[in-house]
Amino acid sequence: xxxxxxxxxxxxxxxxxKDAFEVKKNPYAFQELGKNKTIILVFFNSSLRTRxxxxxxxxxxxxxxxxxxxxxxxxxxxxxxxxxxDGDKPEHIKEAVPVIGQYCDLIGVRSFATFENKEDDYSEKxxxxxxxxxxxxxxxxxSATRHPLQSFADLVTIEEHxxxxxxxxxxxxxxxxxxxxxxxxxSFTEWMKEADVEFVVTHPKGxxxxxxxxxxxxxxxDQRKAFEGADFVYAKNWSSFSDYGKVLSEDKDWTVxxxxxxxxxxxxxxxxxxxRRNMIVTDGVIESENSLVIQEAANxxxxxxxxIKRMLESLK
Length: 316
Ligand code: CP
Fold this sequence. Notes:
The protein is of the alpha/beta class. It has helices at residues 13-25, 31-34, 49-60, 93-102, 118-122, 125-134, 148-161, 183-194, 211-214, 223-227, 258-261, 283-286, 293-315, and strands at residues 3-4, 38-43, 64-69, 77-78, 91-92, 106-110, 138-140, 168-173, 198-202, 218-219, 232-236, 268-270. The termini are close together. The protein has 2 domains: 3-146 and 300-315, Aspartate/ornithine carbamoyltransferase (Rossmann fold, 3-Layer(aba) Sandwich), CATH 3.40.50.1370; 150-296, Aspartate/ornithine carbamoyltransferase (Rossmann fold). The chain is globular and about 55 Å long. α1 packs across α13 (293-315), α3 crosses α13 (293-315) and α7 (148-161) packs across α13. The strands form 3 sheets. A 5-stranded parallel β-sheet has the order 1-7-6-2-3, sandwiched between helices. Strands 10-9-8-11-12 form a 5-stranded parallel β-sheet. Residues 47-50, 142, 150, 272-274 line the site of phosphoric acid mono(formamide)ester. The site of phosphoric acid mono(formamide)ester (CP) has 9 residues, from α3.
């Protein structure tokens, strides 16, 4: 495996789950693979879970880990081609990335959508330059359009907690005061389409995700109807794709609460975190015994380690 940006990169999901449960059962069994190997994690944006879980995963594999925060202590990077660099960015990504590649065997990159330009975001301009110039395998730690390590961890969590063979999984938009990328919602949709689940997306009008992700997916604009019989409710805010990066609504009627969860099949609540309480979800739901948010976060180590293991195997 030379890159991990989207669901296609992991191949067969049943095999991926099998590998993930093997790693979860024996996290320290593969340390020879990572001995004397180094991973560098590059962050253009903040993180708690991705930063810690990916470090933990790499350490479980016996690797050395370095972390670089681009906006805190590193040179600001110019990412445009052919510009006169007379502004506040002293280093170009075309030098910085191959230099980083000299110091490691794998690179992880977090680079969110900037909302400055939809085409740049949806062409994955930043992470694709890491693939092009680094010379080493690249793992997405959340890119402009996707968050595959999160979606893989979510799939592992659903597999662990499902009570029927083919559960109903609902992705619901929920309100948030600031514009957030579509990456988690896009990615979750992409993975659920490939998984053995009945999948429904619900959101207010104007929050349609790109057709690239939702083609063939059931979209239900009535949130309460979508929740009926759900085994899992996955809440997330995202900004508008069509009116790119705009917050069109903060309608609290879309907050996931006890009354709406009562419509489900004793449904489990999921969110990738961090979460705004009493905007996205009520205290009562997130603190209920049906909340899986901590288990999802725990499985971030499992998804990261499974991907790192495959990449190390492909270096041999
Ligand atoms: N879920 C997730 O990616 O969390 P962080 O942004 O804290 O890494």
